[in-house]
Amino acid sequence: MVCAHEGVETGCADGVNMKPVRVLEERMSVEERLVKVETDIGHIKEDVSDLKTAVHEPGRTVQELGRKLDDFRVEVAKEFGAVRTAIESAKLWMLISGVGTFVAIIGSAVAIVRTMK
After folding, report:
1. Domain count of the fold of the chain
2. Which residues are 63's β-sheet partners?
3. Which helix (H) or strand (E) holds 7?
4. pTM exceeds 0.85
């Protein structure tokens, strides 16, 4: 097998074909092996850091959406309050107009009755 990041022949993780790895390790000095391990650990640290960022990012997004939803809820409540006020005003205006019309009709009827006498 060929290792993807090194381009060298290595053994499989399941234990098959481990001999080439041993040969490679025997050819490398301790310092070279240490540098290789440190490099591999650096890659692992970067991956873990990326994972941490990826894990925290959705949490921030959910909190942001929660704040926006709260703001929207407050805005909708204000608008419904304004609509209720408008409806109450319309009801009052209709009541006053209706009573005024009724009084005008009664007044006209009384005037017609008086003129007919």
Report:
1. 1
2. none
3. none
4. no
